[in-house]
Amino acid sequence: MTLSEQPSPAPSTATRPAAIEPGSIAAATYNAATYNDDLVTRSPQALAHRGKSVAPRKILVLGATSGIAEATCRLWAAGGHHLFLVARNSEKLDMVAADLRTRGAGSVQTAVADLDDTAGHHNLLTHAVNSLTGLDIAYLAHGILGDQHAAEEDFGHAAQILHTNFVAPVSLLTWLANFCAQRRSGTLAVLSSVAGDRGRKSNYLYGSSKAGLSAFLGGLRNRVDREGVTVLNIKPGPVKTAMTTGMKGSGKFADVDKVAQTIVSAIDKRRDTLYVPFQWQPIMFVIRHIPERIFKKLNL
Fold first, then answer.
1. CATH 1.25.40.10 fits 33-295, yes or no
2. What residue ranges do the domains of the chain occupy?
3. Each residue's pLDDT tens digit in the chain (300 positions)?
4. Which of 167, 169, 168, 165 is nearest to 196 (CA)?
5. Residues designated as active site
C-alpha cells in the first residue's frame, strides 16, 4: 500500500458500467507498457486446493502488493484460480505475479495503476473484467495508514488519508457493484479495519476513513444483496506485514498467512462481516460500549 507521490485528483462521478461481453475488447485504450497479460496454462493438479476440487474462479485484486493481499493471493494461486492484479509499484507487482505463477495460478495478469486516480477507474476496471472474461470476486486491499500526527497539523495529509482509504474505494466499488448487480452474481471483499469501530486519539484519521468505508459497505450490501451480490466487510486487527514493521508491539500482531486463510474461508462462505483474528469482535464490542465520559479520558 503506497501513498501517491502526486496530489490525487478530485473524485470523478461514478457511472453505471455498460454491459461487457466476455472476450470483447475493452473500451479503454491502454499503453502496452502499463499492463502485462501472461496467460499460463496449469495442470489439473493445480486446481486442487487443500485436497478439494474447486472450479477456477476469476479474481480481481486491487492493491495486490499489500501484505494481506499477497498472502491471500498465494492461497488462490494454489487453487488454480485466475488472477488479475493491480498495484502502483510495477517492480513489486512483477515479483508478486511471478511468485503466483510458480504456485499454480490458472493465469496471472497485471496492470500498473495509481488507484487514487478515480478518473481512471472506469477504463481500468473495464480492461480487467474483459481480460478475465468475467468476474467472480473483486478483492479490494488498497489503503494507507498515514501519519496521525502529520494529519493533525496538515489538512493536506488528512485529506490524502481520507481519499485513499474512502473516496477511491467508493469509486471502485460503485463501478464493481453495478457490474455485478447487472449479472446478479459476484463477491466484493473489502479490507476495512477494526480501527473504524470507534475513533481513538492515536489514529482517528485512519479510523474515520475506515468507519466511512464500513458504513458505505453496509449500505451497499443492503442495496445489492437482493441482486445476488455478496459484500464482505473484512475488519483485521493489527497484522504482521511490511506496513506495520516497526510499530510498537508488532511482534504480537496476527500472522498474515493465518489471516489470509480466514479471509478466503469467509469469502467462500459468503459472509457479510469478518473480524480477524476472531477475538477482535468481542474486544471491539466492549470498546464501542464504553461510556463517552470514561472513553474520552483513556489513552488509546
1. no
2. 33-295
3. 333 333 334 444 444 444 444 333 333 333 333 444 443 333 333 333 443 446 899 999 999 999 999 999 999 999 999 999 999 999 999 999 999 999 999 999 999 999 999 999 999 999 999 999 999 999 999 999 999 999 999 999 999 999 999 999 999 999 999 999 999 999 999 999 999 999 999 999 999 999 999 999 999 999 999 999 999 999 999 887 766 666 666 667 889 999 999 999 999 999 999 999 999 999 999 999 999 999 999 988
4. 165
5. 206
